[in-house]
Write a structure and sequence with these properties.
The complex is a heterodimer.
Chain A (H helix, E strand, L loop, with lengths): L2 H15 L21 E7 L3 H17 L3 E7 L3 H14 L5 E4 L1 H9 L7 H5 L6 H6 L2 H6 L1 E2 L2 E2 L1 E14 H6 L9 H11 L9 E2 L3 H10 L5 E2 L6 E2 L4 H15 L3 E2 L7 H7 L5 E5 L3 H8 L5 E4 L10 E10 L5 H14 L2 H11 L6 H9 L1 H4 L5 H7 L3 E2 L7 H16 L5 H18 L1
Parallel strand pairs in A: 1-2, 1-3, 7-10, 13-14
Antiparallel strand pairs in A: 3-13, 4-5, 6-11, 6-12, 6-13, 8-9
Helix pairs in contact in A: 2-15, 15-16, 19-20
Chain B lengths: L1 H52 L2 E2 L8 E2 L3 H8 L2 H33 L5 H13 L2 H11 L6 H8 L14 H26 L3 H9 L4 H12 L1 H16 L3 H6 L19 H10 L4 H26 L7
Antiparallel strand pairs in B: 1-2
The chains are: A alpha/beta, B mainly alpha.
Chain lengths: 434, 318
């Protein structure tokens, strides 16, 4: 046996010894009948604070409502920690039964046949009715598909909104939140108080930058090229990047610090007048702000092509290593979490988007009419302004490289065009080599 | 008959000696076996495995790793700018952290070796950073580096100097982490140097003093040469440890994936160890991370050989 073969055999033996390979494959689909015995389901998630409390409450309620399925929640830290934990567990051959899955992460897991196809459970007698399916927002159901199949199911979906300090707006003589990015930067200039270390806004995270790119008619990739190539370094990408860099140069904006949630803390301490973050951030800022100042939420400002906002949050996925009974039990639990009543409760207690149109109507009738800021994300959803970034297994790596280069622009160490070209080269390298 | 009996006796004794030697050898290996087994299973085998892994493209979870030969090394050495940057930054980190923490450690050890009030308390206080949980101390220091609320900027402000954006500026992030690392590691060097100083016979110092040698002369001509084995050990261990730095970079620069600033702004704090970690456990490029491990091993091996070649002749063991 030559050296090459020996190494391949040794490594494959180690892979098999480690249990790599993902376990049972659900090809062909299970025959779903009623659960014959009680099943235990372990659910890894990345929720904290009120979000974790909300999920725990619904889970406890579900566990006590029936005796066939018992779900145990395991908090795994942030989403990046959860992804790392899931990948490590897959490498060790012992994944959980279900987990929250960001779309890119699900694509990565599915590359190794690690996920269970949920279609048989959705279509089973105790699955979803056609009324259920048409009630769930289509953008969310479509987002749950990986390679055309339901390997995930929507759970906690969100989008970015603009939080603004109403007291600072009033003091600066601004009567309403900015409707366009031009208004946004004009307001940022009026709101900045350099002597007090206050800026109008802080540089956007990569996802907001992507939303802006779409709002100005730009695109991430050139879909006509083969292989696919980055296209965000064109004139549109440079234009929106320059808007931010000019604001930073003028002292109207500044880069976000490296400390955890630095932008959130700055908004809470009235060091920033405007803060772009997910609708769910409300749950984390409302208490620290308390009565210090009044704040509200507004839709993301519009670009020349209107408002387009990335849909965030996670879906839930199940792993093929678990038995069919466990997968079935896990799906019944997901069905319970996402029914009309519970998705309404979930939206109220966590600020996530309601998954169903019927739930949105209920919320518009009471909760959103008394808490209009909480309905901003849902408003964009109904107007069809939410989009999902085309997800791939390597998107996190691409995102990291793009973030690094954009941070160089915010730190004024790189020109927008040079930074975007550099990011595009890195992304193209990832697209080519994987 | 008598002649053959006379020949048999020494042969029997030789056989007995051989049997005893074999038995003692087996006993020694039996005693060594548990430690040896642990070393083989957790150190040697994984090390060899990493060498093999570096020739594959694999994400740790798929069942079919692709054999790519030396392609990982080709990309690392030929096209990967971030790896090159991380090598330079690691060398910078090692070149500053090791001599500064060694010099401070030696100075403090010499001072604390003399009899003085509160000596035991001082020794404990200086060693404490080394035994405190690394992540906890990094988090505390990240507050100290905070641009608005941090103590370091308060000090600069008191002297009417401009505030620094310590961890968010490509020029200051690595020096800030080096500052922390010197603080964290110096206590360890102090303890090792104190042990070395305790091994120097006091009568030699006394004799030099009687002969009229001054303090500096006693240190330079007596203490320093006699400390050579200790200095050599500290240098070797510090260089190897510093080349592998990961945790302070990870915690100070906000991890990976979140804000996109992992490795510092413009990756200005990216070291080989941190890059290896992100490739292996964030991007799950196991083969590529294996290739980085192999190169890191070769770099450390080369540096250690140079150290041995240059310094071992100057080290005297009593």
């Amino acid at each position: 046996m030559n050296l090459k073969k020996s190494i391949a055999v040794l490594s494959l033996a180690l892979v098999l010894a480690c249990g790599g390979g993902g376990g049972n494959n659900s090809s062909g689909g299970p025959q779903v009948g009623a659960l014959s015995k009680k099943v235990e389901v372990t659910f890894w998630h990345a929720l904290s604070g009120n979000l974790q409390t909300g999920l725990q409450a619904l889970t406890d309620q579900y566990n006590s409502s029936q005796d066939k399925v018992h779900v145990t929640l395991v908090a795994k830290g942030a989403y990046s920690d959860l992804r790392q934990a899931v990948l490590t567990s897959l490498a060790a051959g012992s994944p959980p039964d279900m987990a929250q899955c960001i779309e890119n992460h699900a694509t990565k897991y599915q590359q190794s046949n690690a996920l269970a196809d949920l279609t048989p459970y959705i279509n089973a007698a105790d699955g979803l009715s056609s009324a259920d399916k048409s009630d769930i927002f289509p953008v969310m159901l479509n987002d749950a598909k990986v390679a055309g199949k339901y390997y995930t199911f929507p759970l906690n979906k969100s989008t970015t909104v603009l939080y603004y300090n109403q007291d600072m707006f009033t003091a600066a003589g601004i009567s309403s939140p900015p409707a366009t990015w031009e208004d946004f930067f004009t307001d940022a200039h009026k709101l900045a108080q350099p002597a007090n270390g206050v800026v109008g806004a802080e540089a956007p995270p990569i996802d907001t930058w992507i939303s802006m790119l779409y709002e100005y008619g730009g695109k991430l990739y050139d879909s006509t090229s083969s292989p696919k190539k980055a296209a965000f370094n064109d004139a549109t990408g440079v234009k929106i990047t320059k808007l931010w860099q000019d604001a930073i140069k003028a002292g109207d904006a500044r880069p976000v610090g490296s400390a955890a949630f630095a932008d959130q803390v700055d908004f809470q301490n009235a060091k920033t007048a405007m803060y772009i973050s997910t609708q769910v951030s409300y749950q984390f800022i409302v208490k620290p702000i308390g009565t210090k100042f009044k704040f509200a939420e507004a839709p993301l400002p519009a670009g020349s092509s209107g408002t387009k906002d990335e849909m965030f949050g996670a879906n839930v996925c199940m792993f093929s290593k678990s038995s069919q009974d466990v997968q079935h039990g896990a799906f019944l639990y997901v069905k319970y979490l996402t029914n009309q009543e519970n998705t309404t409760t979930w939206a109220k207690t966590t600020s996530y988007l309601p998954l169903r149109q019927s739930a949105l109507k209920t919320l518009q009738g009471d909760f959103y009419s008394t808490n209009p800021s909480q309905g901003v994300g849902a408003g964009m959803l109904t107007k069809g302004q939410l989009f999902v970034v085309p997800f791939t297994a390597t998107f996190d790596d691409q995102r990291t490289d793009m973030s690094t280069e954009l941070n160089n622009v915010w730190l004024l160490t790189k020109d927008p065009k040079a930074a975007l070209d550099s990011a595009a080269n890195k992304v193209n390298d990832i697209l080519t080599t994987g | 008959m008598a002649k053959s009996a006379a020949l048999e006796a020494p042969r029997g004794q030789a056989r007995l000696r051989r049997t005893r030697a074999v038995r003692e050898g087996l006993e020694a290996y039996a005693f060594l076996a548990p430690a040896l087994l642990l070393l083989i299973v957790f150190l040697l085998l994984p090390a060899f495995w990493v060498f093999g892994l570096s020739l594959f493209r694999w994400d740790l979870i798929s069942s079919n790793p692709d054999y790519v030969g030396l392609a990982n090394f080709d990309r690392l050495l030929g096209r990967d700018e971030l790896f090159r940057k991380s090598v330079f930054q690691t060398v910078y980190f090692v070149a500053v952290t090791v001599p500064v923490s060694m010099a401070l450690g030696l100075l403090m050890a010499v001072l604390l070796n003399a009899k003085m009030p509160g000596r035991d308390f001082m020794r404990t206080a200086i060693f404490t950073p080394y035994v405190m949980p690394l992540v906890a101390t990094v988090i505390i220091w990240s507050f100290m580096f905070h641009p608005y609320a941090g103590v370091f900027n308060a000090v600069l402000n008191a002297f009417h100097l401009p505030k620094l954006n310590w961890l968010d500026n490509p020029r200051t992030v690595l020096p800030a982490i080096i500052f922390y690392s010197v603080w964290q590691h110096t206590g360890y060097n102090v303890v090792i140097f104190l042990a070395g100083l305790a091994n120097i016979p006091p009568e030699l110092q006394e004799a030099a003093r009687v002969d009229g040698a001054r303090a500096w002369s006693r240190f330079w001509r007596l203490t320093w040469p006699l400390l050579a084995p200790t200095t050599y050990f500290v240098l070797l261990v510090s260089i190897i440890g510093s080349f592998k730095v990961i945790v302070p970079i990870l915690v100070f620069t906000g991890g990976v994936g979140g804000t996109g600033s992992g490795g510092g702004p413009d990756n200005a704090a990216e070291t080989i160890g941190y890059y290896l970690y992100t490739q292996a456990f964030y991007s799950f490029h196991a083969g590529y991370a294996g290739a980085i491990s192999v190169l890191l091993f070769l770099i450390i091996l080369a540096v250690t050989f140079v150290q041995m070649g240059v310094l071992s002749r100057r080290v005297f063991y009593s």
